[in-house]
Fold this protein.
Amino acid sequence: MSAQPSRLGQLDGLGQELLARQLDEQIAAGFEVGRRLRVLDVGLGRGVQALRLARAGHDVTGLESDPDLLELLEKELAEEPEGIRKRVRLVSGGSQDTGAHFLPGTFDIVLCHGGLIQARDPAITLAGLARVLDAGGLLSVLIRNDDALAMHPGRAGDWDAALAAFDFPEHAGRAFELETLTRGLAGIGTPLRQWYGVGVFGHAVPSDEAAAERMLAVEERAARTDPYRSVAAMLHVCGARGV
């Protein structure tokens, strides 16, 4: 019997912190300090990274198809200072709709941390993301790691889910393997710059602050170290648009 693993869910606080550090590293490597960047967050979910980047002074557009999430984000945004509110624009639409809303080369950074795995055709969606990215821009994509589907439930002791992951059809997971995504990025003129693991060890975050910091340090190091990053629950893949 085969079963499809659960959809990529919202990252926990540890995952969001890891993602933020990795993203900031790529922004620092690709753009001059202090530059006000044009950011598109596709399938922004709870908007954690979008709000964080807006607070850092960047102009952020969020594209989200779920009306409930949009409503929640509007409420959260209303509590922000006016200067931050002015830097954020929310647009209703799916990850495949970038071409309908935005002109080519509109953004310096495109984030897709939840939308790709929900897309009807990931390859077409990926091409649409690259199309709206300006020359020299950064594409940041988060995907489920289909090369290690059984690892995360196995580490958590969920043996039924781990067994189901072994039986997940090969063709269903092919779009979310690092090798496949790397070829796809090269094909759309946004070749791979760096990739990280997110959630290598997968344990609950300790309540003790010092222990939580040590766990974060271990996860952050494992996220960029072979072979650990290759068995992470998710992969953070970054490409750079050709100049």
About this structure: The radius of gyration is 18 Å. The chain is about 40% helix and 20% strand. Residues 13-30 form the longest helix (18 residues).
